[in-house]
From TrEMBL:
GO terms for molecular function: sigma factor antagonist activity. Residues 108-197 form the FecR protein domain. Residues 8-46 form the FecR N-terminal domain. It comes from Sphingopyxis terrae subsp. ummariensis. Coiled coil: none annotated. This is FecR family protein.
């Protein structure tokens, strides 16, 4: 457990990062990298905040209560607005055991373009790509539900208590491994970098070994297993996306998660395939245009969304 000062620093960073006007990403990254305890403390604060949100969601808003006090018309400054949040988070972190009992399940979520790493009680590490939501259970750290997006699981193997990943109707069981799972609507993909993982352990019991990829094109479709270079699995962590004869409709979600903006493909070219490597630089504002040229398509901005169309 980090000391009290580390917990206070984590709360401060968490509050500031929620407000883009006060966020300082380079300094935040430097703080995280300075000590492994910092990332652990930040995760505890984020989880405590999620627990508070779930607990308060069931309570009526003050404005809905007949005994609500009049609102203060003075516009609060940053510290006035967020000081109460910080104080509440400090209380939540100190009361962590109570939250674990009161709210057994919790979600870890990232925005498009954001990456995050979470370490479970058993030592398993889950790295979340952008636009990803994973639900975890404090009562059982050996199960995770990928509701959508993409994540790589670095599992602490225990043959007596295998780790399980659930995503839609797909179920995976760890056999001592590092594997990447992606899910977008009905499409799902599992790529194994190390060890092995069991797909559908209670029925098909299909064993996927390092260097194998399982792809499900849509809900109800039969899984297809192909080869993959283990070194390229979870390449998104370093800004590298590798594709082999991949339909543009499957590539678009990967680009969205990496670039931080929704990207869609015109139905007329959705089945067109692309083979190659795309290097992502999130700081390059012209990245989508350069990537479109590489794939032989044209990008068009429609509101907040980019749409890829034929040239």
């Amino acid at each position: 457990m980090a000391n009290g000062m580390t917990e206070q620093e984590a709360v401060g960073w968490f509050v500031r990062q929620r407000d883009p006007a006060h966020a300082d990403w380079p300094a935040f990254t430097a703080w995280l990298e300075a000590d492994p305890a910092h990332a652990a403390a930040y995760d505890r604060v984020a989880i405590a905040d999620a627990a508070m949100t779930e607990a308060l969601a069931a309570r009526p808003l003050a404005a809905d209560r007949p005994d609500a006090a009049p609102a203060n018309d003075n516009a609060p400054g940053f510290f006035r607005r967020y000081g109460a949040v910080a104080a509440a988070l400090l209380v939540a972190v100190s009361a962590w055991p109570v939250y674990r009992v009161a709210v057994p399940t919790y979600a870890v979520e990232t925005a498009l373009g954001e990456q995050r790493s979470v370490t479970l009680d058993d030592g398993t590490v889950i790295d979340l790509n952008g636009g990803t939501r994973v639900t975890l259970d404090r009562r059982n750290p050996r199960i995770a539900t990928l509701e959508g997006g993409e994540a790589v699981f670095r599992v602490t193997h225990d043959p007596t208590d295998p780790f399980t990943v659930v995503s839609g109707d797909m179920r995976l069981r760890d056999v001592g491994t590092v594997f990447n799972v992606a899910r977008e609507d009905g499409r799902a993909e599992v790529s194994v970098a190390e060890g092995a993982v069991m797909f559908d352990p209670d029925r098909a019991a299909l064993l996927l070994r390092a260097g194998q990829r399982l792809h499900i094109a849509h809900s109800g479709a039969a899984p297809v297993v192909t080869r993959v270079d283990p070194a390229t699995v979870a390449g998104w962590k370093t800004g590298r996306l590798d594709f082999t004869a991949t339909p543009l409709s499957d590539i678009a979600p990967d680009l969205s998660r990496a670039l931080g903006a929704p990207i869609a493909v015109d139905p007329a070219i959705a089945d067109r395939t692309f083979t190659g490597t795309i290097l992502i630089d999130g700081r390059d504002k012209a990245a989508i245009e350069k990537i479109a040229i590489l794939m032989g398509v044209s990008p068009r901005k429609v509101g907040e969304e980019w749409r890829l169309t034929a040239n």
